[in-house]
Amino acid sequence: MQMPLAIYCKAALLVGSFCPGYSFLKSHYNQHPDERIFTPCMLQVVEDSHIISETPQESPQQAHIIVVGKVIVDEYGRPNEPEPKISVGGGGPQAVIGAALALASRDYKTHKQVQLKNTSSKNLPPPKQPISFMAPVGDLDFSAIEENTLLELLEPVLQKPPIFLRGRQLMTPRIRLWHEGDENEQILRWFALNDSFGDQGAGGLWGTLPSLEDYDRLFEDITCHSTTPTLHPVLHIIAEAGATAPGRNKDSRVLLDKNLRSKISFLGVEPVIFSNEDTGCVSEKDAVHCAKLLQDILKATPQSQKVVISPDMAAYQAMIADTSMVKSPNLDSWAVRNGPQGSRLVLSPFDSAEMIQVPAATLTELINPTGAGNAYAAAYTTLRGSGCGCIESACLATAIGAIFCEYPHCPPYDWQTIERVSHLGQHLESEIIREVAGIGQNA
């Protein structure tokens, strides 16, 4: 018989201060005593009697999610393949689908989605989500077919069509990509086509768009059409963060603008740094540059605003080695993507007691991991910015990233996927609690 989740929670919190997992939970609750980090129950710790009881979950915040990402035309196939498979990706579309699955699976867990259990309404599609997507594309070569392909992909999840910012006389980035490895782990290989990452492509696009004026128009449109009394904008941005990145980091430097930051309630940044294909490591030059960029973004953060950062493990480890990467009171958490090893949740980059490993979710089949990290990062930002606990957010985001790996491009936005994300997320939470309890019992 499976032990109720609340019992695992009690064991996790009462094992004693010698347990690293306990130290993580204890320090987290000391800093955030009202936060719900475990589901489906919220833990209420009573200091004098050490009682843990179940209380109803609070309603999640009605946030409006803004995803600002990249659009890249992907040609799947090895360099010598004459007819590669074409899809439109680049991280931005995957981030949007990830954010939508995050909101839908959160609601499924919270409300059990009565319409899913009602056989008369099973044919109804999942609700479209309050998500805006803004991305630059080149007007020289972004064809109507490619645009329609992207619109068909995103139409089921977005309440309003995506915003494509067209760069005049510029190319949309295009890459040839393929995977090497076995059925358990795949390594992505790619190269740019037709100099589309130069100044006439990604360099020009990502260095000029979106502009601050584009953000102003987006916020004005969201405000005008909002049906909620209090707008809660959550911005997630995929930022080119390397020292020689296309666009010279101007895609993220807009976050230094005080007027823009004043319009955001919560910020998520996915810093993109490319590691060496042979070593898998990020260069010291890129790490120092990225750390400085993130530090500038944190310094520009209003006092009431929180920021989450979602790098991959190679970038995180390289940045942590740079001692200039200091803590900030506005830094909510790091959600570090670690591929087939799952993810790591870090509340302090210099305190191992405030770190917890989220195990990998079980895959039915590894098809294509491209874009899974983008989906994970956007899902974590979406959930954390909507008021979900950090561990709940990391577990659901990990489940979403895993499911992305099972499809050639993106998973379907349907009830079956949403239900599976919810169940996988709950299973990962239970595994974390068992691990923490096990450490305490064996110490």
Name some characteristics of this structure:
single chain; 443 residues; alpha/beta; UDP-N-acetylmuramoyl-L-alanine:D-glutamate ligase; nine-stranded mixed sheet; four-stranded mixed sheet; 14 helices; disordered N terminus
Architecture overview:
The protein is an alpha/beta fold. The protein has a single domain (58-424), classed as Ribokinase (UDP-N-acetylmuramoyl-L-alanine:D-glutamate ligase, 3-Layer(aba) Sandwich). The chain is built from 14 helices and 15 strands. The chain has helices at residues 5-14, 20-31, 92-111, 114-117, 144-154, 202-208, 212-225, 250-253, 258-262, 284-299, 313-320, 372-385, 390-404, 415-442; strands at 42-46, 51-55, 64-68, 72-76, 85-89, 131-138, 163-167, 174-181, 186-192, 233-240, 266-272, 306-309, 331-337, 343-346, 355-358. The strands form three sheets. Strands 7-6-3-10-11-12-13-14-15 form a nine-stranded mixed β-sheet, with helices on both faces. The protein has a four-stranded mixed β-sheet with strand order 5-4-8-9. α1 (5-14) packs parallel to α14 (415-442) and α10 packs across α11. The protein starts with a helix and ends with a helix. The model is unreliable at 1-30 and 32-59 (pLDDT under 50).
CATH homology superfamily name: Ribokinase
CATH class: Alpha Beta
Give start-end ranges of low-pLDDT stretches. Answer: 1-30, 32-59
Main β-sheet, in a few words? 9 strands, mixed
Helix content: 25-40%
What is the mean pLDDT? 82
Total strands: the figure is: 15
Structural class: alpha/beta
CATH topology: UDP-N-acetylmuramoyl-L-alanine:D-glutamate ligase
What gyration radius follows from the Cα positions, in whole Å? 21 Å
Report the β-strand fraction as a percent range: 15-25%
Spatial arrangement of strands, main beta sheet: 7-6-3-10-11-12-13-14-15
Order of helices and strands: HHEEEEEHHEHEEEHHEHHEHEHEEEHHH
Shape: globular
- Which architecture would the CATH scheme give at its second level? 3-Layer(aba) Sandwich
